[in-house]
Amino acid sequence: MQATIQASALGELPKVHDAQLAGVGNICELVVVDNAAVLHSVRTRYKRSDIYTFVSRMLIAVNPFKELPIYSKDNLLRYLPGANDIMDLPPHVYGLGLHAVKGQKRGKSQVVLISGESGAGKTESAKLVMSYISEALGSSRHMQRRESRPRYSIAPEPGTDGLAKRRQSRYSVVDPKMPSIQDKIIQTNPILEAFGNAMTVRNNNSSRFGKWTQMMISPNMSIQGCSVTDYLLEVTRVCSRGEKERNYHIFFQLLQARGEEELKCLDIQPPEAYSYLRGSQFVAPGIDDARCFTEVKEAFLALEFAWEVQMEIFKVVMGVLALGNIEFTEAAEEAEIKGHDALLKVGGFLGFSEEALRSMIEVQKLKMPGGEVVHRKRPLDQAKAVRDAFARLLYGRTFKWLIEKINAKLAQAGTTPVFFGVLDIAGFESFEHNSLEQLFINLSNELLQKHFNEFFFRMELEEYEAEGVSVGVEVQYQDNSDIVEMINGKGGILSMLDDEVLIPKATDQTFVSKVIRTHGNNPRIVKSKMGGAVKFGIKHFAGEVTYDVSGFLEKNMAKLPDEALELLKSSSCSLIEEIGVRVATEAQEAESGNRARKAEVLERYRLLLPRAEWPKFIGRRQVNDEEKLKIMIDVLCLQQALRQRLTEMGLDENGLALGKLGKVPVMCCMGFNGIQGRAGVLRFDGALEIHLRRDADSALGSRDLDFLLSAMVQGIGILRGT
Ligand SMILES: Nc1ncnc2c1ncn2[C@@H]1O[C@H](COP(=O)(O)OP(=O)(O)OP(=O)(O)O)[C@@H](O)[C@H]1O
User: Fold this and answer.
1) Are 610 and 546 in the same domain?
2) Are 541 and 483 in contact (CB under 8 A)?
3) Vertex 700, ends 698 and 705: CA angle to 5°?
4) Same-domain pairing of 454 and 312
5) What's the domain range around 484?
6) DSSP state of 608
7) What pLDDT does residue 356 have?
8) Which of 325, 231, 244 is nearest to 283 (CA)?
9) Is the ipTM, as predicted for this complex, more than 0.90?
10) What is the mean predicted confidence (pLDDT) over 370-374?
């Protein structure tokens, strides 16, 4: 298409320089830098299969979606420190590694942050830069090149069925009895990918978790140890996912290997037999599950996981799949598990007794005020939710357990403060259907972008200043702090979601309404044009995403019954028992941490009101108007007294009051600054104690007094955000 430009307007167009057309290797070499010039440079280079372009020390990598001959050992050697002058070498991810090694030599820790949308090639870049570091910092005496290609699959190309073969391993361990630390680090990849990667609509090998890998570097520049930290594995995928997607690779790897003699005892069936796999894809183009499983076993071997331990892990994976096959008598309103077979199978894999498992899923144990425990059959939907939550917990915890064990194998001897770290998080996602998982993933990308903005621009500007160079123009960049604040700040969307799950009758719809009421005027929010739609959109730094909020509340709850913990601890499978003990310890720590924190707060701001000023506890009964009025007066007195006390204590006029009724924790966010804000949760009893906290995030307003009142009438009220 040709655009006609008026001759008079030609002078207003920017002049194009030759370098801009040629596609420079470092954007800083451009005489004039603007969006068009950057884009044109990167595009021109990409057409020549030069996928890398530097912008100072930042590297732009464009996914080639094909194999390029640039990752050979010979090429890597060209980038080793001292081999060549970096200025003479083409931009490359190895060049980025070289920058890092140079920094390391000056005794400074180095970090590579990788950002980009899903499928952009982050994980592959992370693996390449880590291979480089391994090679540059350590001897590779235990590594033997099998072939010079990276270990990735080629994603389906548009218009083809894209069945490309999975590539050979980059390195094979020559002597599995003596793998070096470098070998071990590289070998973590097949395991983590098997358990943490899955096919999505964007990427057939998409990382469904974030990963921070930290290699500890000794003063003599060798790798001493390594640790991996995982973030936010998408556990919801275990029980459901889009029809064009697939569950985690490990399920399909095991299914592919079902003919292997040593796995026969697991009685693995074809994928159609498993409810958690049905309804989505069974095959990921470009991924050879059988081959990957062999690599996983090789990796386990290199990391010194005994075969018995590997079998335990595989049993847990099969146990998770088997859980999904537990069915219920649909006609009944109360949960009733059909037959025994599925329960027996799960019990066999996970080391539970059939009865204990049945009871955990079917029966709810309610603790009554007097301490008595009443057993009641769960409603059908609740039992299904417990089954699925248990499957998600098991999978997610097994993943964490695996990482812990891997870290133990990679643990360093001695300490060194210098490290090389790579952060690879799930990329920005915008699908046809976006749920809570996408909101979390996109938030982490926003946070990374925010960090990048603050760190990179500030750092560059400070460097200029230190060198006495004037930038000459005001440097502007797209600031995304407001989006981060809106999602993750005080009173932001996520804290509203946390509050909402506590409200008995809350629904996804009530949550959306509140989000719109609170943040609807924020230019970053896109309101749905359809009234009553359970959706909202957010204008992220990387584009607009519409979130379907159906299921947000349930996904955010993830609360398992106490019996689940008991069941885990009772398992005869040591892996599950370990998980049970860990979950219990964490729960205890969280509780005592909360208590300690609360105690500290309470200690500091203990507020003793004269008894006469305590509002009466009314209990769960209807009250008439006269009584309501009295309560109202009581509340006002309380407020007045609190206000006075706050002032005496030199606090500002907003505070968070924490009360206690019997065993039920009570707190009430109160504003003493007139009529503003929202309220919290309130309970009163004869032995009421009111405590204040300085960092109240909300205040009590006049409208909230109604809620406060109704809360008191009911004995307990949840007032926040209503
Ligand atoms: N340098 C490369 N050379 C050849 N192909 C590549 C390269 N980088 C990525 N690919 C191809 O693109 C696919 C997706 O890359 P990768 O898994 O690294 O993306 P990602 O950004 O980590 O995505 P996600 O956020 O979904 O995990 C790879 O499986 C591979 O087929």
Assistant:
1) no
2) yes
3) 150
4) no
5) 444-468+479-557
6) -
7) 94
8) 244
9) yes
10) 78
Residue 565 neighbours by CB distance under 10 Å? 18
- Convert the pLDDT of each residue in 43-57 to its tens digit: 999 999 999 999 888
Averaged pLDDT, 366-379: 80
**Rounded Cα distance, 674 and 652, in Å:** 13
- Cα–Cα distance for residue pair 498/363, rounded to 1 Å: 26
Q: 120 a known binding residue?
A: yes
How do residues 183-236 score in pLDDT, each as one tens digit?
A: 899 999 999 999 999 999 989 999 999 899 999 998 889 898 999 999 889 898
* pLDDT in the model for residue 236: 87
Q: Look up 203 and say whether it is catalytic.
A: yes
Domain count, the chain: 3
683 has pLDDT over 50: no
Out of 180, 197, 207, 280, pick the active-site residue.
Answer: 207
Q: What pLDDT, on a 0 to 100 scale, did the predictor assign at position 696? A: 34
Based on the residue annotation, tell me whether 25 is a catalytic residue of this protein. Answer: no
Cβ neighbours for 563, distance < 8 A, ≥ 6 positions apart: 359, 360, 363, 365
pLDDT attached to residue 486: 96
Q: What is the mean pLDDT of residues 607-619?
A: 30
Q: Is residue 636 part of a domain?
A: yes
The CATH number linked to 534 is: 1.20.58.530
Which residues, including other chains, have CB under 8 Å from residue 40's CB and lie 6 or more apart? 20, 21, 23
Q: Active site includes 207?
A: yes
| Pocket of ligand 1, beta carbon within 6 A | 63-65, 67-68, 116, 118-124, 152-155, 202-203, 205-207, 426-427
Q: Is 435 a catalytic residue?
A: no
- CA angle (655, 661, 666) in 5-degree steps: 35
**610 and 549 together in one domain:** no
Mean pLDDT (the chain, rounded) = 77
Regarding whether 532 and 494 lie in a shared domain, the answer is yes
In a domain, 329, yes or no: no
Q: What is the pLDDT of residue 524?
A: 96
Ligand 1 midpoint to CA 60 (Å)? 14
Residues 6+ apart with CB under 8 A from 98: 79, 80, 81, 86, 132, 136
139 labeled part of a ligand binding site: no
